[in-house]
Amino acid sequence: MGQADKTVRTVVGALAGVAALATLAGTAPLPALAAPVLGVGALMLLVTAYTGFCGLYSVLGVDTCPADAR
Question: 35-57: b or e for each residue (b if 16 or more CB lie within 10 Å)?
């Protein structure tokens, strides 16, 4: 996984986490079901950004890491 991919995953994961917490607090105009969905999505994005491994990428054969970084 390339650095740009990690950065995007971190930012989107953090935003999803904030949206999940805002939904739980009742300050976001989202249905209650959105909180756990956003929370799980946020955790998945943040973990894959931290570890640099995405299982879906492995299955699909996607590689976002530049060739010179290997």
Answer: beebbebbebbbebbeeeebeee
For residues 54 and 45, the model is more confident at 45
| Residue 1 CB contacts under 8 Å (≥ 6 apart), including other chains | 48, 49, 52, 53, 54, 57, 64, 65
Helix 3-25 to helix 34-51 angle (10° resolution) is 150
Render the chain in DSSP notation, one character per residue: --HHHHHHHHHHHHHHHHHHHHHHHT-S-S-TTHHHHHHHHHHHHHHHHHH---HHHHHHT---S-GGG-
The model's pTM: 0.82
Site of tokens 């530049």 = 66
